[in-house]
Design goal:
With 170 residues, the protein is an alpha+beta fold. 31% of the residues lie in helices and 19% in strands. The protein has helices spanning 2-10, 16-27, 66-74, 100-106, 151-166; strands spanning 32-33, 38-40, 54-58, 83-88, 91-97, 112-113, 130-137.
Length: 170
């Protein structure tokens, strides 16, 4: 096929830019910028659930790591703690943080483009490009699942948490 295309191109039948477009369009992966947050399905699996949905947003590498922020905010035992309980309107929910390895394993972050790219010199916090969180109810239900009774509560809470974290940039 390559010889046929090259032969046609040499005869002037196929312009060079068309050939270039054909070759490039096969290998380009379309990326999009996460404006505020996105919900990604089929992320980390936990006991009793198939892959949880994950709340994903772009990290600001110029501020403290997100793990330090939640450790301070929720008075966790260590920066390594990736699961913790919160109470919202009298009900208990578990928030699950994804570390870099889990983020790469469960979420295809190659689909996302960074809107805030900084030189490495500016980076103070985490080197992760994105932060992902899942949330389950005390009954082990995925709160971010589409149509879940907890979906609005979870999204609102995680968005407020994200906004509070990102406000540390000021």
């Amino acid at each position: 096929m390559e010889r046929t295309l090259l032969a046609l191109m040499n005869k002037g039948k196929i312009p060079l830019f068309v050939l270039f477009f054909i070759i490039l369009s096969c290998g380009i992966n379309k990326q999009y910028v996460i404006e505020d947050y996105t919900i990604v399905p089929n992320a980390k699996e936990i006991l009793g659930n198939k892959g949880l949905n994950a709340f994903v947003f772009e990290n600001n590498k110029k501020i403290m790591p997100f793990q330090h922020f939640v450790t301070d905010k929720f008075k966790l035992e260590s920066y390594q703690q990736k699961e913790f309980w919160v109470t919202i309107e009298g009900d208990k929910y578990k928030i699950i943080l994804y570390d870099n390895d889990e983020l790469e394993k469960y979420i295809n972050t190659y689909d996302f483009a960074l809107s805030n790219q900084n030189p490495d010199v500016v980076n103070v916090g985490s080197t992760a490009d994105f932060i992902a969180l899942s949330m389950i109810s005390s009954r082990n239900e995925d709160c971010l699942a589409e149509g879940s009774l907890y979906e609005n509560i979870a999204v609102k809470y995680l968005k407020q948490l994200k906004d509070e974290f990102l406000s540390n940039d000021r």
